[in-house]
Specification:
With about 375 residues, this protein is an alpha/beta fold. Helices cover about 45% and strands about 15% of the residues. The protein has two domains: about 200 residues, Rossmann fold (3-Layer(aba) Sandwich), CATH 3.40.50; about 160 residues, Glycogen Phosphorylase B (Rossmann fold, 3-Layer(aba) Sandwich), CATH 3.40.50.2000. It is built from 15 helices and 13 strands. The radius of gyration is 21 Å and the shape is globular.
Length: about 375
């Protein structure tokens, strides 16, 4: 039996993006331990249902507080010494950086690092971000330089960056198309009826998702007299320093330019209610929102950035516009809002793309196979 330790920033992210990986691990007779911060009762119940061992670990919202980081390192070292995992599956830059800081003090045999996008470290370039980025890269370089180390990337841009920086050797790198979609759950449905199609942006509500440009595009479309509803779906995250406040979102709603549907867990129903999915993000790993939109047969407007352009076929399943460009965003949305025929055509192409590339069963099996190969080496 192989013992696998997953380190992630939260249990909800595991269930939204990698639940099938955990189910396959336990289904193949392996032990799966999940190290995450305190989870909701609902997620804890899911962990028990899936046969996971959940261990609370205080992974901080950032890497800037040395005392908090030191506490997390101590927890990770104690957990690794206690469980002696055959493989550690670390998800995301922050988790990998923390594991790298713990590595000199813990018996780490094998590591699979899911590079689920580079996030704020590559989007922003202020002094604090540069310092944290350098710390993270130094730590990751130390963690991944040894034998039995595998990177799983989600887009080719990130592969190139890691190789150029000397963080990853070509033979260590594999690539998937994100975390995949349950195609039977996100089933294609006809375009909603009505003369005011809904454009939906589902995201964590922070500036890096392009929410500001979405709101400005909504203003432009309103000025042009284009019929449509601009709808924001998601919750504000108080722990994210770049989050948009609830007061700001409510001010936009009061202005009459957007609707805010709040946090939703019934995402298939959200896509059924939408006519167009919009994600004007500044950067992604490989967007799960865009994969789900394709599976749901919904046309997309997104940005020409890593992790967004890689999840669509420009001109066929989506319109791809420059990042941080509200006018181009509004122009592309207007084309779709004014043509049901175009929405249907691009949505059908999206479903075909999802069936060909985004099936979660294939992607999860690929990831578990990678962990089993490392454990056996």
């Amino acid at each position: 039996m192989t013992r696998i330790l997953l380190i992630n920033t939260n249990l909800a992210a595991h269930f939204s993006h990698r639940r099938l990986v955990g189910q396959l691990v336990t289904g193949r007779g392996h032990e799966f331990i999940v190290a995450v911060p305190r989870a909701s009762d609902e997620d804890h119940a899911r962990a028990e249902e899936d046969g996971l061992t959940w261990r609370e670990t205080d992974i901080p919202p950032g890497l800037a507080n040395p005392m908090v980081v030191m506490n997390t390192i101590k927890q990770l070292v104690a957990l690794i010494r206690e469980t002696r995992p055959d493989v550690i599956n670390v998800v995301g830059m922050k988790s990998a950086a923390l594991l790298g800081l713990a590595a000199p003090f813990a018996p780490i045999r094998s590591v699979v690092f899911n590079v689920a996008g580079l996030g704020d470290m590559w989007i922003h370039d202020d002094l604090k971000t540069r310092v944290v980025r350098q710390l993270a890269l130094t730590s990751i370089r130390r963690l991944m330089k040894g034998p039995r180390r595998t990177f799983i990337f989600e887009n080719p841009t990130d592969v190139g960056i890691f190789q150029e920086l000397g963080l990853a050797r070509p033979e260590q790198c594999v690539q998937t198309v994100g975390s995949g979609v349950q195609l039977h759950r996100f089933d294609p449905t006809p375009q909603p009826e009505g003369d005011e199609p809904a454009v939906v942006l589902p995201c964590r509500i922070n500036w890096a998702k392009g929410v500001g440009e979405f709101v400005e595009a909504a203003r432009l479309l309103k000025q042009r007299g284009v019929k449509g509803r601009m709808c924001l779906v998601g919750s504000t995250a108080a722990t994210n320093p770049r989050a948009i406040s609830q007061a700001q979102v409510e001010a936009w709603v009061a202005e009459g330019v957007i609707e805010w549907w709040g946090h939703r867990t019934d995402m298939p129903e959200v896509y059924r209610s939408a006519s167009v999915i919009c994600l004007p993000s500044y950067r992604e790993g490989l967007s799960k929102v865009l994969q789900e939109a394709a599976a749901s047969a919904r046309p997309v407007v997104t940005t020409d950035v890593p992790g967004c352009r890689d999840a669509v076929v420009a001109g066929e399943t989506a319109f791809v516009v420059p990042p941080k460009d509200a006018t181009s965003l509004a122009d592309a949305l207007q084309r779709l809002l004014e043509s049901r025929e175009l929405r249907e055509k691009m949505g059908q192409a999206g479903r075909e793309l999802a069936e060909a590339q985004f099936d979660v069963q294939h992607i999860a099996s690929f990831q578990v196979d990678a962990m089993e190969r490392l454990a056996a080496s």
